[in-house]
């Protein structure tokens, strides 16, 4: 899931040059969203990320397992588990979606919304430890660890919700099947791009 805005020209003139004013590529500015949160968009994102159809779970699980077997046979990971640097997910017996985010995205979420409710929260970070977080979240340090974790969890769908580095790696490894892309009207100063 991704929301991007148009990029406002900078006084330097070259920083945002590859992006035209009509290009929706802006993800962040100074560790936060460049635009004011839109309640309609937030409700939409929440509804997409929390929707589960239990009747389709077995079919999705079969497709996922087939893909992960192919990925492992091509050297994209193995079936063994490394150390488990995690906290348990929320509502362990209830089928939920997984949301994966980088450390900066996690830190940008207001405290009252952490962890994102009715979702299994996964934070990708090389610096955070479970001692750093009091919330029930899985902490992993690589996409390979994410693939191993997903093999262990019972979940409906997995959503990548940022940041730019996480998007780039998942796209480059062909791990993204669908993009929910919201275009935010208006141009804003940005220092992080999609």
Automatic annotation (TrEMBL):
Residues 1-194 form the DHFR domain. GO terms for molecular function: dihydrofolate reductase activity; NADP binding; thymidylate synthase activity. Its EC number is 1.5.1.3, 2.1.1.45. It comes from the Eukaryota. Residues 73-92 are annotated as: Disordered. It catalyses: dUMP + (6R)-5,10-methylene-5,6,7,8-tetrahydrofolate = 7,8-dihydrofolate + dTMP. The keyword NADP applies. Residues 81-91 have a biased composition (Low complexity). The keyword Lipid metabolism does not apply. In the N-terminal section; belongs to the dihydrofolate reductase family. In the C-terminal section; belongs to the thymidylate synthase family. Bifunctional enzyme. Involved in de novo dTMP biosynthesis. Key enzyme in folate metabolism. Catalyzes an essential reaction for de novo glycine and purine synthesis, DNA precursor synthesis, and for the conversion of dUMP to dTMP. This is Bifunctional dihydrofolate reductase-thymidylate synthase. It comes from Plasmodium vivax (malaria parasite P. vivax). The lineage of its organism: Eukaryota, Sar, Alveolata, Apicomplexa, Aconoidasida. The gene is dhfr.
